[in-house]
Amino acid sequence: MTQPKNFWQTTLALTFFANLGILGWSVARWAELGVILHRSVWGLVLLLYIAVLAGCVFLFYWMRSPKADAFIASLELSRLQAPVWRGLGLGLFTGILLLIPHLKFTYQIGEVVKNSTRDPVLTMILFYWACWWLILVAAGALKVGLKTSWAGGFASALILLGVAYEIYVRFQAVTTYPFSMGWSESSRFYYASLYFSQTLYGETFPLSTLHPSRYFLQSLAFLVPGLDLTGHRFWQFLLWMLMTLAAVAALVWRAFSADSNDSSRWNSKVGRLLSPFNLLLAGWLFLFYLLVGVYYHLMPMVFIPLLFVSHKHPWRSLVAVVIASLWAGVSRVNWFPVPAMIAIAVYLMEVPFSNTRTSNARIIEYLKWPFFWATSGLLSALGAQAAYIFLSGNAENAKAFTSSFTSDLIWSRLWPNELYPLGIFWGILLVSAPLLGALALALTHWKRLHPIRWAGILSMLAVLFAGGLAVSVKIGGGGDLHNMDGFAVLLSVVAALFIGGQVRAESAPDDARVQARPGWPVQAVAALIPLFFLIPMLAPRPVYDQALNQTRFEELKALVEAAQGPVLFINERHFVTFGDIDVALEPDYENVTLMEMAMSNNQQVLGQFYADLREHRFAMIVARRQNLFIQEEGGFVEENNVWNTRVSPHILCNYEELTLLEPSHSRLAVYVPRAEPGKCP
Asked: What tens digit of pLDDT does each residue of 330-372 get?
């Protein structure tokens, strides 16, 4: 249990560093703008920052003395126990929950007001400064409202704010906007529809070569007759929430209840799972998975091993590993070994090697089942991929399944860059820091686990970390942390089992456990990290010009339905999927797959694409507006240049722009064959 003095000293330290960062950021901006502080209101702000820093230092050291004990005791607010105070506390927290986004919205609106005299950067800095103090007030509100300790109120406030804002941000994608919300959103619904292509298009088409399991889960929404684009967006939102929640629930159950040696019944186990600490840990893991970007179609490979693997039931464990690995085979190639790795990690942590004599025979006996699981899992994944290549109708283009192995690697994306300011290397270390802290604490008990167990756990983490970095630098990646997902998941499993005390020690008695629960400072930083990323993402719910968008849609519909021949939708193919535009589907050269083929320089697909363009196979092409501009800097510069080298020139030399449609969120063009070819590469 966190002592009040420890809480306040940690809070003062965090406040000091938060204000120090704000001060440094402000000074840099003032210098950039040439602000004369002694003649400006910003001079008073500077004095306020300095006063806060000085106050934090003074109070931090003063609280170490016995003289501060009475004051700290008075901060426990023990008199505020009446129901009315609890109601006021919960009401205040709710108000702060709603106020922080409102402040962000005000800042964003002020940024674009032309006659505003406010500097948007300084306004943003003040917004972040205000957020810190609002979070502290929210912690006090929950302490009173829920009758917790200050530490409990602080952690609860951060986790509840984080979960609420994460759900809000994700729900922003559920909109009635008729065009694609992003570069690849339309593609997802199209590829999901291919599982029902005979029903939707009257013909069977090959399935996607990318992320088949993701599109299978999304395709389930097509079982609801007449579900429109907004409904499919909502289903995708539910997949993010529910699949992540399932993985988190399985992990928390494994960490705190699975291998319990006591005689407690089911209701007692549920009671332990619903303890305040476990609920907060579950909330944090929920935010962690979404922050890293562990996609929902990968979650079965997490919760199946966690729920069904047990050293007491090795054959049941084998079945679980095989099933999860079969799913991996139609998901992502870098996840092929992950289900077996999760099972092996659970085994190594829950089954002691024994501190008796070490021999080759004993090592073989101990590692027999992990080896069997690893081999069976990898073979199952490879077999599932091979079967899918054949059954999906892509046997003639099997090379498309290995595009990630032939794409360019951009190693600079490991470090801070324009695309991802933190860089993949530092970003994953920052996000995973609390779990790494728990692992480091566990390593202080290294003598209580046999070296073989440590070697297995740490080597698997190292392999997934290195593999994630390699995948992240593939062209098309590096914009976020989602390619570090395998490492993040295995690290969370290892750390959670240590935190929950599920790791069996080598020494007697048999129920001896190794537990590594980080102290309050680490817990406080852990709770802060998700909000550090979430608050900048808060934005007003997008409002689109419905009349404009409907007009643009009607223009597009009239043009393509009057076309004298096949129409290729490179972009916005969901209009055909949902029957909004009545034309026959042309299944080739969809945006995402075409980009993947361009990045991997798949000449089999690109060569056929160029030939079809030269022969004017399509009467019209619907795509984002094409250009030949080669960038030298900026985010996704390499991807832009690949497209504008291997795709755009071939479109523009054989087709010309008929019209440009500009709905609220994109620039969409319709192309028709040129009477005379232009200059082709």
From this structure: 999 999 999 999 999 999 999 999 754 556 788 899 999 999 9
Structure tokens at 132: 């810190």
Pairing assessment for the beta strands 655-661 and 567-569 based on DSSP bridges: unpaired
pLDDT in tens, 118-137: 688 888 898 999 999 999 99
Residue 382 CA to residue 362 CA, distance in Å, equals 31
Backbone phi, psi, residue 449, to 5°? -120, 140
Averaged pLDDT, 219-239 = 97
Per DSSP, helices labelled H in 257-313 are 266-273, 276-292, 300-308
Reported as a pLDDT band with limits 50, 70 and 90, residue 677 is: confident
At residue 294, the 3 state secondary structure works out as: coil
**CA-CA distance, 43 to 187, in Å (whole number)?**
52
Q: Is the dihedral of CA 191, 197, 201, 204 positive or negative?
A: positive
**Secondary structure class of 513 (helix, strand, coil):** strand
* Nearby residues of 430 by Cβ (< 8 Å), 6 or more positions away: 422, 529
> Which token pair is 333?
């190639």
| Predicted pLDDT of residue 117 | 46
Long-range CB pairs of 104-109 (<8 Å, 24+ gap) are: 104/535, 104/538, 104/539, 105/538, 105/539, 105/540, 108/539, 108/540, 109/540
Angle at which helix 485-499 crosses helix 424-443, to 10 degrees, equals 20
pLDDT of residue 109: 58
State the pLDDT confidence band at 163, using cuts at 50, 70 and 90. very high
- Token digits for 171? 């729900």
Are the C-beta atoms of 251 and 489 separated by less than 8 Å? no
Torsional sign, CA 221, 566, 179, 330: positive
Strand order in the sheet with 620-624: 567-569, 620-624, 668-673, 655-661
Residue 530: is the preceding peptide bond cis (ω within 30°)? no
What is the rounded average pLDDT for all residues in the chain?
Answer: 92
**If 0-12 CB within 10 Å is exposed, 13-18 middle and 19+ buried, where does residue 102 land?**
exposed
Average pLDDT over residues 670-677: 92
- The tokens describing 149, both together, are 């300790």
Q: Got the DSSP string for 91-112?
A: HHHHHHHHHHHHHHHHHHHHHH
Length of the chain: 681
Distance of CA 595 to the CA centre of its chain: 22
Where is 127: in which H helix or E strand?
helix 120-146
Query: Does 451 sit behind a cis peptide bond, omega within 30 degrees of 0 on the bond before it?
Result: no
Cβ(490)–Cβ(464) below 8 Å:
yes
**Who wins on pLDDT, 512 or 450?**
450
| Max CA separation in the chain (angstroms) | 90
Predicted confidence at residue 113, as pLDDT, reads 40
Q: How far, rounded to the nearest angstrom, does the alpha carbon of residue 517 sit from its chain's CA centroid? A: 25
What is the per-residue DSSP string for 563-629? -SS-EEESS-THHHHTTSS------S--HHHHHHHHHTT-HHHHHHHHHHHHTT--SEEEEEPP--P
- In whole angstroms, what is the distance from residue 31 CA to residue 20 CA? 17
Kindly state the helix (H) or strand (E) to which residue 435 belongs, with its residue range.
Answer: helix 424-443
Q: Which of 154, 103, 156, 109 is nearest to 130 (CA)?
A: 103
Global pTM exceeds 0.85: yes
Q: Which of 659, 654, 572, 658 is nearest to 609 (CA)?
A: 654
pLDDT in tens, 596-625: 999 999 999 999 999 999 999 999 999 999
pLDDT value at 311 more than 50: yes
